[in-house]
Amino acid sequence: MPTTQAPLQLLTPEGRLIEDDSTAEALAVVAELSDDDLQRMHREMVVARRFDLEAINLQRQGQLALWVPSLGQEGAQIGSAFATRGQDHVFPSYREAVVAYHHGLDPMRLIEYWRGMTLGGWDPREVGNFHLYTLVIGAQTLHAAGFAMGQLFDGLTGTGDPGTDAATIVYFGDGSTSEGDTNEAMIWAASFQAPLVMFLQNNHWAISVPVTTQSRTPLFHRPEGFGIPAVQIDGNDALASYAATRLALDAARAGRGPRFIEALTYRMGAHTSSDDPTKYRTDDDTAPWAARDPLTRFEAFLRARGAGEEFFADVEREALDVAAGIRRGTFELGEPPQSRMFDHVYSEPHPLIATQKQWLADYEASFGGAA
Ligand SMILES: Cc1ncc(C[n+]2csc(CCOP(=O)(O)OP(=O)(O)O)c2C)c(N)n1
Ligand SMILES: [Mg+2]
């Protein structure tokens, strides 16, 4: 049995740095971050949390078909996102709005996606190699394993040049670890020693199924059975997330094979805007996690380092601006193009698709035009 040790934590919930033997290697990596970097981490977390909230409101007002909140998971996401380099590739699931924002994806692309304006989303090459959202649970782990194998076969990694050696990072959830795809991805990555970092956000829920039902062992024990070194971290600690991901990516890029990180975090909101979490959990379940909020602790940490009111006020202003921008932008989008969903099913006209398209048009017409 692998040894059970406490998850890596660098910041206490009060924002104090933990400096001891267990954190020395990670803190050495964090020490390379400038004050500017640290402040940018905070800024991006705050802005992303604000537009996440705005998107939920827009969904409630009928402007979006669905929204997937990242509330509570900002620390895990921002730390890991900051650890990547320009040459790396990022494969998200569908809850990575904070990672997306860090890589330069305009939040409007996510708004368009969840409004049904687009069937794909964006060109990963234009947004820091941030690939498309994947709703099929676990599928992106195989896409990423294959991509990392490609990086290896193309000689894009493991050359010893940290400036160009590339790796791939893939995000997935605790529920995803029960999928065959995720387990197969571990086999492929381990067999080929592909430069893949598997970043698990254990937010304790797969919709209404608690993680305790999904696994009898801590999830980070599983990859060790596949021959993949793994660590468990406090996922609400952005610095721990940064350090663990930096070390894992460095190892992957240096040709030392795949790595696995289990970030212990908590989904504070609903699974999606279609879910009602009061049906399966209580305030007593969420309260301890509210006290471990990733933003509160990072703010306390920055204040102790000397960040002043002006900085925090500026961040708040930017967050409100971005939120107002997506609200305005959403109202300008118009109606989702309903017939487009039929356009790319086959490359040529198909009678079944034509029938379905006509059926939808007749159905819409039965409402008698604009309601
Ligand atoms: C292959 C597949 N099976 C089932 C679903 C329905 N589904 C959507 S989200 C979800 C739970 C996923 O939980 P987890 O992997 O922990 O990610 P989280 O939503 O918590 O971020 C399920 C079962 C799906 N999208 N794809
Ligand atoms: Mg989950």
Task: Explain how this protein is built.
The protein is an alpha/beta fold and 371 residues long. The chain has two domains: 330 residues, 3-Layer(aba) Sandwich (Rossmann fold); 33 residues. It is 46% helix and 8% strand. It contains 15 helices and seven strands. It has a five-stranded parallel sheet with strand order 1-2-3-7-6, with helices on both faces. It has a two-stranded antiparallel sheet with strand order 4-5. α10 links the parallel β6 and β7. α1 crosses α10, α2 crosses α3 and α6 runs parallel beside α7. The longest helix has 26 residues. It starts with 23 loop residues before the first helix and ends in a 6-residue tail after the last helix. 41% of the residues are buried. The structure holds thiamine diphosphate and magnesium ion.
Binned strand content = 5-15%
The largest sheet, given as strand count, sense and whether it forms a barrel, is: 5 strands, parallel
Structural class: alpha/beta
Shape: globular
Q: How many individual domains?
A: 2
CATH superfamily of the largest domain: Thiamin diphosphate (ThDP)-binding fold, Pyr/PP domains
**What is the ordering of alpha helices and beta strands?**
HHHEHHHEHEEEHHEHEHHHHH
Q: Mean pLDDT, nearest integer?
A: 96
> Helical amount among residues, as a percent range?
40-55%
Q: Report the oligomer.
A: single chain
Question: What small-molecule ligands were found?
Answer: thiamine diphosphate, magnesium ion
Quickly count the helices. 15
Regions with pLDDT < 50 over 5+ consecutive residues? none
End-to-end Cα distance: 63 Å
**CATH uppermost class of the largest domain:** Alpha Beta
Radius of gyration: 21 Å
Task: Give the number of DSSP strands.
Answer: 7
CATH architecture of the largest domain: 3-Layer(aba) Sandwich
In spatial order, strands of the major sheet run: 1-2-3-7-6
The CATH topology of the largest domain turns out to be: Rossmann fold
